[in-house]
Amino acid sequence: MTKRRGSAAWSSVDDLQRSLRDHRYLADRGLATALHLAVSLERPLFLEGEAGVGKTETANVLASILGSELIRLQCYEGIGVAQAIYDWNYPRQFLAVRASEGTEHHVSVDDLFSWEFLVERPLLRAIRTESRSVLLIDEVDRADDEFEAFLLEVLSDFSITIPEVGTITAQVPPVVILTSNRTREVHDALKRRCFYHVIPHPDLEMESQIIRLRVPEATASLAHDVARAVAGLRKLPLTKSPGVAETIDWTRALSFLGVTDLRTETARDTIGAAIKQEEDLGVALEALPRIIGADG
Ligand SMILES: Nc1ncnc2c1ncn2[C@@H]1O[C@H](COP(=O)(O)OP(=O)(O)OP(=O)(O)O)[C@@H](O)[C@H]1O
Ligand SMILES: [Mg+2]
């Protein structure tokens, strides 16, 4: 039988779901279960989903619930060891050598390539911290294959070898969340190490509730109208569908303008909060009367 380990911060999936809500994050049962298992069984969680569905925010909120430090590694094309794991502080090394010139304190190569001159980057930091951190490896699909191979190594045993100073193994493995927008397929080997969960766009009811949580000043009726309008927009052939982030922004803008029920004209005037691509504007504007008018 598997020993139950993990977080004292919640006792069950329901309990975690409540905590997330208390932190103004609405997770469906699938996501709450994935988080519960990842934390309890100490497996990285690989989160996929379109832009703005709440992938990054999941890690932020989880860190708050656990009372842990959030350590974020933002991936990008060309990221490597020097940005993700460690680097040497060359200016300091240079100064140390300069300062020792003409004195009897000769600085050796070993002195220069020691902890004193090492610059810690997010992965090393997550492995060295004494209390459990939440490590967010954000938008891993933007990094290249080579970097994925590094990650795979680090995530398989939570240890890092720095040739000049030795191997560092995590005393307390971090909670790891990887996110991807699927701009590129991430290798199976990396996914195999992780629990995998796709965050879909929320359904109408859930999106209204997210709006109520995030924009409490909006009326229930406005929250409902915006959720419905966004759901309608998502059905259109857009190059970029609005995410939850856009839904929230749009409601905030409308609420600021004193809107309590969404009408086509107001929606048209404020559409820039939801649609961010010029080529999508025409399609969206044309469809608005149909999307908004449908409930009379
Ligand atoms: N389920 C949710 N409950 C509450 N707020 C949410 C939820 N999903 C998204 N949000 C809100 O939407 C915003 C955008 O979410 P987030 O940045 O996490 O999306 P993302 O999936 O990481 O997007 P991207 O792929 O563009 O990075 C968050 O700041 C949060 O306020
Ligand atoms: Mg994100």
Give a brief outline of the structure:
This protein has helices at 13-22, 29-40, 55-66, 81-84, 90-100, 109-112, 122-128, 145-157, 188-192, 204-214, 220-234, 244-256, 264-269, 278-293; strands spanning 45-48, 70-74, 86-88, 118-120, 134-138, 159-162, 166-169, 175-180, 195-198.
Observed structural traits:
296 residues; Rossmann fold; 3 domains; 5-stranded parallel β-sheet; 9 strands; elongated; binds adenosine-5'-triphosphate; binds magnesium ion
Say which CATH homologous superfamily of the largest domain is assigned: P-loop containing nucleotide triphosphate hydrolases
SSE order: HHEHEHEHHEHEHEEEHEHHHHH
| Largest sheet strand order | 2-5-8-1-9
SS summary, helix count: 14
**Ligand catalogue:** adenosine-5'-triphosphate, magnesium ion
User: What Rg is obtained from the alpha carbons, in whole angstroms?
Assistant: 24 Å
CATH architecture label of the largest domain:
3-Layer(aba) Sandwich
- The global form is elongated
Task: Indicate the mean pLDDT.
Answer: 93
Distance between the termini: 58 Å
Question: Would you give an account of this structure?
Answer:
By secondary structure, the protein is an alpha/beta fold. The protein contains 14 helices and nine strands. It has helices spanning 13-22, 29-40, 55-66, 81-84, 90-100, 109-112, 122-128, 145-157, 188-192, 204-214, 220-234, 244-256, 264-269, 278-293; strands at residues 45-48, 70-74, 86-88, 118-120, 134-138, 159-162, 166-169, 175-180, 195-198. A five-stranded parallel beta sheet has the order 2-5-8-1-9, sandwiched between helices. The chain has a two-stranded antiparallel sheet with strand order 3-4. Strands 6-7 form a two-stranded antiparallel ribbon. The relative contact order is 0.13. Adenosine-5'-triphosphate is lined by residues 24-26, 49, 51-57, 181, 210, 213-214, 244-245, 248.
